[in-house]
Prior knowledge:
With 71 residues, this protein is mainly alpha-helical. It has helices spanning 3-27, 34-51.
Amino acid sequence: MALIPELINVFVENTKNVYQYTVFQLKHPAFNNIYYCVLLAYLFCFTLEVILPKQRKHGLLSRKGFWLDTF
């Protein structure tokens, strides 16, 4: 039973470390920062969807479910 408190302690410490790493990454933008790379890739794909829609018959923002792409 002594194993459970140790596991909880390891989980809490690792969660704190991940949180600190995430905050550091978000506060310091760089080209090798994964969060900003994913954001740039998302914005690039979203822009392509606006410029070159999958189906030509739809207007720029009139496609049903277009705004769901933002989530």
